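Support reply, case 0932

Customer input (verbatim):
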Amino acid sequence: MAGAVALTLAGCTVLRPDSEPPAPREPARGTVFQIDTPFDAAHAARLLADGPNTVTGRAWLRQRKGAAITCAGQPVYLVPATDYARVRIRALYGSEQRGARLDGRVLNFSPDPDAYSQQVRQTRCDADGRFRFERVASGRFFVTAVVRDPDGEHQGGPRRGGGSLMHAVETGGGRTIDLNLAR
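Our regenerated output:
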């Protein structure tokens, strides 16, 4: 029994409540990030339970020539901020607070548990680039939004074609939080 516990804990990263999870390790080929922090499906499920809060917002990017493109018709995700998610978000966006991915690189993660991508909430932006999540539990989340050029113009590089934006949010007290995800 003690051996099984030791093997189970060997791959775990122990975090203090006030510490950040370690940065993922990137192998030489640069596309796969190894994450030592386990995914806590029970924690994610608690954060996905119905709650008294609302998260709304708008997501948009300014193109190189000055025109703005929004997330109209694109997905927006409410991701529970588990320790595993924090590591992934930091690898993708360089921060746990807010960021943008405009380079078009595809990153893979190991492990990449199916439960991680299944334990999120998803909505779509309306025609004005606005989104809304209702009945959100109290806690910390990452809101990520996809922004694409509706004309599909990619000649100016990845930024011209769009990308994704992220903003962390702390819900609680039955509040409505309105975010502006912009770059």
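We compared this against your earlier run and they match. Two observations from our side: Helices lie at 2-10, 41-48, 83-93, 114-118, 158-161. The chain has one domain: 49-182. Please reopen the case if you see a mismatch on your end.
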